[in-house]
Amino acid sequence: MSVVLPGATIGIVGGGQLGRMFALEARRMGYRVAVWDPGADSPAAQVADEAVIAPFHDPEAARELARRSDLVTLEWENADVATLRELEALVPVRPGPAVLEVAQHRLREKDAARRLGVPTADYRAVHSLDDLRAAVAEIGAPAVLKTARGGYDGKGQAVIRDPADAEAALRSVAPEGTELILEAFVRFRMEISVVCARSTTGEVSCFPVGENEHRGGILHSTVVPARVSPAVAAEARRIARALVEGLDVVGLLAVEMFVGDDGVVRMNEIAPRPHNSGHYTWEACPVSQFEQQLRAVCGLPLGSADLLRPAAMVNLMGDDAGTGLGRMGTVEMMAVPTAALHLYGKAESRPGRKMGHVTALGDDADQALQRAQRAWHALAADVDAVALAPARE
Ligand code: AMP
């Protein structure tokens, strides 16, 4: 398979912060970048060479991206599969639409995991209240009801603590007729993730295991290396490799997992793209996850995924409580040793919206986390100021 070299134009489906960081890395390496996103001022379009501004199901937009690109990759896994198949007829799309068909659907994801020898929580497909009642009876409570499609960051989910809650949970999660999955509630010690790359040549390289803390279903922080036993870390990496190879991914695959109270590592979900929990790689590894994605899809040798220093990343979320106190928090944050600021260029701060993140390094995971938290506290007091709109006033 031919190698795609600097000077070529890489198309990205999706214009969010993942596309922005990918574009920054690609441009550093001499590639051109074309972004497809419905938003005119998307985070990725701000730093790209070109933008196609159109809805994701628009076939003409897909053709336009194909005309402008030598190769197309993704930063968003909910792109329309049929449209991507049309795109694939015109230009190489990596990862391919077949991977998205699995990653867009929690049932298919878990079926694939089981097929590949990867443990998951017990689960059942649910299409009706009768199905749900039967599934709760089989799996037991507590259990988590989720939409099979479209849910992310804890959206479209309800915990069923008692079988009597089934009907209310069903109504709260989605309109009738929506495909759902009921999962056993995993009692976990820790949530972890691994971002793994696989290139056009089949070369595989996994970044170290990250330890994740979620708040309200959304990632809050990642600490690397995860404070787990070598056996748990090895199992997490085995799982990531089994999935990236078994699903024939070209590009990145992020695998989120639970470390159960019983010590078993279970896959929760996968994403065939860069992942929030891999942002630390920018500062802490010889190549970032974004450069690794570029290398993988271009058919270049993968870079070293070694951890140069322990690291921690904390997300900066939008918050409607903030009053825009100015940017003094940024000055304070910059004084924290090793702390690095990433802002995504989003004009509007909304509750639950990822506005940026901070990464810090340390002699060990604890020190890195303390530093990242100090930096985060300085900025979080000031969180509306991380929306970039006020600067234009
Ligand atoms: P998800 O959208 O599947 O990533 O879920 C968001 C968060 O909800 C996860 O990171 C967990 O903290 C929690 N969660 C999801 N599914 C389960 C489960 N089956 N058992 C326990 N906690 C879960």
Automatic annotation (TrEMBL):
GO terms for molecular function: 5-(carboxyamino)imidazole ribonucleotide synthase activity; ATP binding; metal ion binding; phosphoribosylaminoimidazole carboxylase activity. It catalyses: 5-amino-1-(5-phospho-beta-D-ribosyl)imidazole + hydrogencarbonate + ATP = 5-carboxyamino-1-(5-phospho-D-ribosyl)imidazole + ADP + phosphate + 2 H(+). The keyword Disulfide bond does not apply. One of its GO terms (biological process) is 'de novo' IMP biosynthetic process. Its EC number is 6.3.4.18. Residues 110-298 form the ATP-grasp domain. InterPro entries: ATP-grasp (IPR011761), ATP-grasp_carboxylate-amine (IPR003135), ATP_grasp_subdomain_1 (IPR013815), PreATP-grasp_dom_sf (IPR016185), PurK (IPR005875), PurK_C (IPR040686), PurT/PurK_preATP-grasp (IPR054350), Rudment_hybrid_motif (IPR011054). ATP binds at residues 106, 146, 151-157, 183-186, 191, 214, 268-269. The keyword ATP-binding applies. GO terms for cellular component: cytosol. Belongs to the PurK/PurT family. Homodimer. PANTHER family: PHOSPHORIBOSYLAMINOIMIDAZOLE CARBOXYLASE, PURINE BIOSYNTHESIS PROTEIN 6/7, PUR6/7. This is N5-carboxyaminoimidazole ribonucleotide synthase. It comes from uncultured Gemmatimonadota bacterium. The lineage of its organism: Bacteria, Pseudomonadati, Gemmatimonadota, environmental samples. The gene is purK.
